[in-house]
Structure prediction request, 253 residues.
Amino acid sequence: MNPAQHVAAVAAQSAGFVAAVKGADPATPVPSCPGWTLADLTRHAGSVQRWFCVLLRQRVQQPPTSRDVDLRLPERDADYPEWLAESAAESAQVFATTDLDAPMWAWGLDQHARFWVRRMLFETVVHRADAELALGIAPRIDREVAVDGIDEFLTNLPFAAFFAPGTAALRGPDRTIGFRCTDGGDSWQVRLRPDGFGLVTEDGDGPEPDATVQGASGDLLLLLYGRLDRTNEAFRLRGDRELLDLWSSHSAF
Prediction:
């Protein structure tokens, strides 16, 4: 997916999120985010969107020292769906007036404004899925979006230690984990080294991974974010189970 597609997908995913929670009891617990209600989840999603908009407007060139944002929170929990829709509208306006290819600080690999659009997309996708799971709805994630989300997650996870300290334990003596989509053939390999981990980027056919997880792209995306367990019947596991245990215990955020 390209930045223009990410912009369109943020709008679509936000609309899906709003549709899911509109009219639902805001006090409904969200099992995939322990301790949160639907109101908490919706407030978080909209707050992230508004915070990213601040970063994009300022075109920050170094890590911000403050996260003070005028969130304009509604007085009633029942009004959070409309407030989230307003957050998405604000995001669309900021995207339209921002050079998404402009250099900009980001916590991940891509040091351009477009990083934040892509990151906002998958924040919204995953939390929309959280809302749907809380309401007994099976999340449906388009394959193109899910594949891009898997790539975004695995690309940026090595840079996430400052808010996901568990990733520091993802070390190993050149052990590889493969993730393969059963609905399109896309695949990724992550190598755990003694000094860190990251995507395997070299071309050509290499050796089989030490452990592999196969599943539909949408399910794999939710697995990576800790919303599905690898023991779920949606996945086929091969290889070193201890390596998969290590990954599962320290990778989700």
Observations:
- The longest strand covers residues 175-181.
